[in-house]
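A note on notation is needed here, since sequence and fold are reported together in a single record. The reader may check this reading against the record printed directly beneath this paragraph.
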Amino acid sequence: GAGVRGIAVGYPQGVNLAFDANQVRLALLWQGAFIDGGRHWTGRGQGFQGPAGYAKLSFPEGPPLAFLDSPDDTWPRAKTGRSEGYRFLGYERDKQRRPAFLYEFSGVKVRDFPKGAVELTPYLIREFTLEGETDGKKLNYLAAAGQRITVEEDRWIVDSKYTVSFLDLGGAKPILRDSGGRKELLLP
């Protein structure tokens, strides 16, 4: 579910992810056991390997960032399995060996740093750092997409499967909209 350039990461908090390097997107989340990679230990491996845990959550395909002239513009779709205008730059690891995914979109360098956390259940925190100029274009982040997104206090519930919340937006306000037959939560 993470494409041919999928990168899987397991965190000690019991949350795991798969990042699609072709579409530079978070593709999967799951809890519990990581992956049984046994069939890939000899020869060239045998096809794709799925998560071993439970509570598997797949995210829609497509790029995480886009320039939109208006909040009504359609979110772009990935073509030929890749997000157009993006270049994956690899990843770097911190002292705890957690990876930050690095990519570039139209001159804007992005550092996408997911971190596992746990309170009652495991969850994921994503920290984004963006550097570069947008030449006056309106850059947006697709924080969530689904058939139904509802708001409760300061969190958005997506398809009754997961929640999205923001820690510090620096004055930016999320936009909830209907587009392309789905609900989308954008962050300008």
Summary: The chain has a mean pLDDT of 89.
